């Protein structure tokens, strides 16, 4: 236990104990004591022992929490002055101060500080208990004459006494500023060679001007403090026994190198809890933070640190601008135990959100808060500053507050990873919009857009227990399929959102359920191959798929302090995409309604049609412009263009489409032959198909979409064409001859034609037709070269001359049906004309109802 203040301050000739806490804290000796001289010489000259550095360093650490430490050390300074006192004592004993005695005093004196403890923190400084061993070691003096004379003189006097002494410490490198003062009580020193004095005394230490301490601390924090020189000055009053020896001025200097100055200790934030706290009865609240940190005390020093006040600041846009105060903090009293972990608890209060914290920096879109959060949210240490602040209703001495207020210490605020922030992400009620072909390059309308209801389940950090909600959000997100990037979602504009807290009792987590209606979010396809793979899987019944999303989200949070914008919050999640139902293409059920021929050429027709389609998918789409190629048997026959079409869920009627039929122009002569056969099969009522395929110009502003989807052939049954004024029956095959009437007496026939054209007249230029009974028996032949019209809807042909097959079974059956009807087949080569376009069609009809009359 430390000695009481009333114990003897000097006790000569005590036996030395085993080195524990009494091991030297400061050792500037070159040789050992008596027989240990050679061993001390091997240990070298130690400028500052590690334990003496501990004393003042830890005192400074704990008083300023994570702030700076005073870079000079009172134990070393006091030891230096004591050594000077001893030298003066011995010199005085030499009467005329011969050089021999002076040399003996300077080289033989040894002082070994062994321990430092802080007894009390007073209103103007500290009371420190200092223990040290002081003795004279003549073996350290090389000159034999000086050693002999010195031993003789000190042996005569034996003991010297000092009065209470004040030691002032100055800083020559800082305009000789007063760093502090220490009051040393009266001492009695045995000066006989080899006699050890175990000093144990209490000194009052008072710091100097806080401004000078601030300058030194800032130089140290900025790495500019390469060394620190201190000078101790005092006036010593001496006597030997009852003989007064007068007053003598003593001045000694010491230089501390940078590597001897303590560094910032490592600390660990063990607990942080942010929560709301009411401050009045009117509902006003602040955000309070409870923080616990731990730092290890490596030194044999114990003391109690009073309550301290601080303010926490965030770096401004530029280091030349003052830092921004964001919170006030106050510590609980801290008990520092020797060589043990030190637990420090503090409370911080955030009262408001400073405007300067959220205001964008000059020539930038980011604010100081953005810079801070960017590092913190990505798991990097974010820098804050801690500065002392005077607090009311505390027992903190004024001088401590003055020093702490003058020093600002940078502190690394440990970041955290938010990789697992998103627990679930879903997108429902999805609508797609294809790009507007007339939009500018930088216009969002020039890209595909997605709308839908986004639902996000996000995990809140366990330390965040404040009442908050999501008001708005925006984001840039990357979409991946099987770890390959497919595209980007760009929420350039703020989207409204709302949120509710959900408790996950199973995992002990607090989740935030965020809902936002996303409207017209641009979707940029970056990899056409991946996009094509996704669409094929969806279109052809591959089941549901999952897209991975990685995003940086800007969030406007509603807090008790107001709206707080946090940018670039990293988020990862998965978007389940529902696959299309099986045989989705077969469920489209395309049907052509109105057809209007807009323009004709010798080889082609351009027409406008209204079509009916059923959307079997869970997604709606808006199509400002889409062009697809029409193919059959791999040959390009024409093009279909859709403009300003909304493709809703379920049945969609009267969707406008502009189609061009021109096989020769689009695909060449082979395509023309295939197109002719396709028309022949279609009008004959055979099952035919058309293939739609995108191309590079399908979506003019985004060619990558057309190219990606061009790998997908969408083959559909050729749409049924509705005949104006006719009742349609689902599943009924298309037919263009309603019935026929054969006139036996005049050898003519008339036909009722069904034309799907509502506004245009089709002309029959030539007919070479044969009527058959029972598929093979000829009835008669019609050859007609005079054009006649087929008007829109139902129309009657003129009487066409018939050459009867009089000897055939078929003609006999026809006569038997006189006054009635029978079913006939027909084979015909027909030349049709529509405007400038003409085409030869091979028609085969079965089961045509034919009436027979005279």
Automatic annotation (TrEMBL):
Domain Tag1-like fourth Ig-like stretches: 589-705
A cellular-component GO term for this protein: fungal-type vacuole membrane
Membrane keyword on record: yes
Membrane spanning residue stretches: 74-97
Matches recorded under PANTHER family: CHROMOSOME 16, WHOLE GENOME SHOTGUN SEQUENCE, PRE-RRNA PROCESSING PROTEIN
Domain Tag1 C-terminal: 465-578
Name the UniProt record assigns to this protein: Pre-rRNA processing protein
Keywords recorded for this protein, A-Z: Membrane, Transmembrane, Transmembrane helix
Region feature (Disordered): 1-51
Compositionally skewed regions (Basic and acidic residues) per UniProt: 28-43
Domain named Tag1-like fifth Ig-like: residues: 730-841
Extent of the signal sequence: none
């Amino acid at each position: 236990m430390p000695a009481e203040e009333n114990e003897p301050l000097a006790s000569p000739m005590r036996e030395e104990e085993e080195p524990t806490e009494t091991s030297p804290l400061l050792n500037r000796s070159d040789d050992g004591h008596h027989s240990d001289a050679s061993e001390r010489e091997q240990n070298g000259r130690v400028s500052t022992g590690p334990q003496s550095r501990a004393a003042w360093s830890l005192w400074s650490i704990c008083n300023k929490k994570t702030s700076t430490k005073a870079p000079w050390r009172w134990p070393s300074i006091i030891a230096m002055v004591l050594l000077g006192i001893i030298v003066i004592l011995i010199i005085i004993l030499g009467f005329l101060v011969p050089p021999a005695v002076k040399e003996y005093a300077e080289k033989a004196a040894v002082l070994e500080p062994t321990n430092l403890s802080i007894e009390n923190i007073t209103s103007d400084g500290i009371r420190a208990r200092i223990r040290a061993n002081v003795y004279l070691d003549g073996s350290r003096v090389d000159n034999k004459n000086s050693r002999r004379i010195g031993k003789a003189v000190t042996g005569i006097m034996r003991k010297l006494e000092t009065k209470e002494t004040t030691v002032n410490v100055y800083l020559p490198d800082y305009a000789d500023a007063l760093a502090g003062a220490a009051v040393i009580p009266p001492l009695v020193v045995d000066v006989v060679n080899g006699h050890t004095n175990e000093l144990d005394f209490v000194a009052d230490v008072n710091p100097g001007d806080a401004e000078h301490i601030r300058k030194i601390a800032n130089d140290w924090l900025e790495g500019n403090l390469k060394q620190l020189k201190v000078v101790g000055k005092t006036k010593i009053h001496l006597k030997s026994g009852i003989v007064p020896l007068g007053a003598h001025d003593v001045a000694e200097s010491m230089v501390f190198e940078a590597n001897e100055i303590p560094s910032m200790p490592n600390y660990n934030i063990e607990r942080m809890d942010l929560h709301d706290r009411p401050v009045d009865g009117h509902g006003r609240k602040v955000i309070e933070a409870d923080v616990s940190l731990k730092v290890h005390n490596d030194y044999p020093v114990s003391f109690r640190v009073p309550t301290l006040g601080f303010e926490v600041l965030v770096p401004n846009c530029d280091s030349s601008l003052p830092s921004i105060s964001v919170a006030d903090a106050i510590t609980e009293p801290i008990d520092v135990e020797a060589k043990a972990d030190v637990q420090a608890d503090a409370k911080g209060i955030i009262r408001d959100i400073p405007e300067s914290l959220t205001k964008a920096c000059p020539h930038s879109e980011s604010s100081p808060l953005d810079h801070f959060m960017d590092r913190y949210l990505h798991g990097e240490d974010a820098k804050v500053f801690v500065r002392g602040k005077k607090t009311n209703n505390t027992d903190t001495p004024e001088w401590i507050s003055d020093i702490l207020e003058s020093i600002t210490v940078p502190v690394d605020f440990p970041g955290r990873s938010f990789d697992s922030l998103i627990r679930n992400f879903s997108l429902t009620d999805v609508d797609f919009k294809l790009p507007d072909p007339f939009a500018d390059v930088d216009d969002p309308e020039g890209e595909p857009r997605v709308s839908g209801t986004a639902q996000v389940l996000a995990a809140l950090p366990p330390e965040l227990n404040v009442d908050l909600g999501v008001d708005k959000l925006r984001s840039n997100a990357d979409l991946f399929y099987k770890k390959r990037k497919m595209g980007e979602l760009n929420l350039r504009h703020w989207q409204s959102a709302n949120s509710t807290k959900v408790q996950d009792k199973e995992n002990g987590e607090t989740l935030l359920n965020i809902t936002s209606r996303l409207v017209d979010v641009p979707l940029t396809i970056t990899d056409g191959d991946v996009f094509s793979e996704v669409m094929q899987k969806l279109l052809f019944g591959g089941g549901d798929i999952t897209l991975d999303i990685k995003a940086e989200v800007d969030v406007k949070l509603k807090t008790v302090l107001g709206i707080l914008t946090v940018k670039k919050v990293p988020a990862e999640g998965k978007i389940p995409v529902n696959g299309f139902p099986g045989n989705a293409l077969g469920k489209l059920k395309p049907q052509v309604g109105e057809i209007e021929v807009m323009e004709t050429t010798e080889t082609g027709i351009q027409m406008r049609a209204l079509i009916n389609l059923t959307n079997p998918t869970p997604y709606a789409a808006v199509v400002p412009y889409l062009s697809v190629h029409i193919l059959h048997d791999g040959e390009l026959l024409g093009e279909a263009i859709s403009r300003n079409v909304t493709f809703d869920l379920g049945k969609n009627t009267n969707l406008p489409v502009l189609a061009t039929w021109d096989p020769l122009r689009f695909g060449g002569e082979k395509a023309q032959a295939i197109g002719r056969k396709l028309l022949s099969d279609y009008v004959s009522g055979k099952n035919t198909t058309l293939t739609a395929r995108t191309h590079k110009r399908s979506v003019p502003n985004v060619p990558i979409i057309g190219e990606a989807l061009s790998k997908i052939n969408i083959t559909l049954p050729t749409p049924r064409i509705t005949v104006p004024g006719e009742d349609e029956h689902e599943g009924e095959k298309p037919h263009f001859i309603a019935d026929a009437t054969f006139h036996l007496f005049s050898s003519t026939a008339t036909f009722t034609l069904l034309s799907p054209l509502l506004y245009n007249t089709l002309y029959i230029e030539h007919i070479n037709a044969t009527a058959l009974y029972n598929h093979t028996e000829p009835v008669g032949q019609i050859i007609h070269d005079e054009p006649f019209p087929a008007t829109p809807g139902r129309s009657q042909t003129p009487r066409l001359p018939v050459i009867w097959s009089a000897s055939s079974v078929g003609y006999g059956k026809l006569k038997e049906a006189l006054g009635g009807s029978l079913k006939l087949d027909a084979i015909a080569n027909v030349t049709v004309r529509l405007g400038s376009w003409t085409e030869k069609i091979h028609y085969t009809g079965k089961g045509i109802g034919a009436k027979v009359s005279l």
